[in-house]
Amino acid sequence: MVHSAPSPEQPIADYLISEQPPTADEYIALRSKIGWDNVAHKVAQDSLNHSLFNTTVRLDGKLIGMARVVGDGFMYFYIQDVIVDPAYQGLGIGHMLMARVETYLAGACTAGATVGLLAAKGKETFYRRYGFAERDGTELGKGMCRFVRA
């Protein structure tokens, strides 16, 4: 299901939605606000530089939300870092971000592509609205991940 999205740089209310990635410093700060591990500046910058797609939401120039898509750009796409500053959660900003992600995916994915994500605990319902299903182990494996720590 593809949801309509505003065009690049279009303000919605007082929000500015853009396809410009955040700076590495903004990315690190936003991750910190939601309690995610800190990453080195160079790692953050390199990761952002290698994203397939970025979208951000700003209010008065301040980054308050972001999302990106990573992957090979052909068969595999992963929605990553859908983050909204806790002070602005519950205002529809996550849906603004996902609408932009869905529009990108509608143009980038071909038949047979896989779009995946790892939902933060408690956010599964949010992603179900976009057609994502939990891997309960019945038909497919449950899915797994590994976090590399220093």
Please, could you describe this protein's structure?
This protein has 4 helices and 6 strands. It is an alpha+beta fold and 150 residues long. A hairpin with a 2-residue loop joins strand 3 and strand 4. Helix 1 packs across helix 2. The N terminus is likely disordered.
Elements, N to C (H/E): EEHHEEEHEH
Structural class: alpha+beta
- Main sheet summary: 6 strands, mixed
DSSP E strands, number: 6
Low-confidence stretches: 1-11
Q: End-to-end distance, in Å? A: 39 Å
How many distinct helices?
4
The share of residues in helices is 25-40%
Q: What radius of gyration results from the CA coordinates?
A: 15 Å
Average pLDDT metric? 89
Give me the side-by-side strand order of the main sheet. Answer: 1-2-3-4-5-6
Beta content: 15-25%
Cα shape: globular
Task: Describe, in short, the structure shown.
The chain is of the alpha+beta class.
Helix-strand layout with pairing:
Elements: E1 11-12, E2 15-18, H1 24-33, H2 41-49, E3 53-59, E4 62-71, E5 76-84, H3 93-108, E6 114-117, H4 124-128
Notable characteristics:
about 150 residues; alpha+beta; six-stranded mixed beta sheet; 6 strands; disordered N terminus
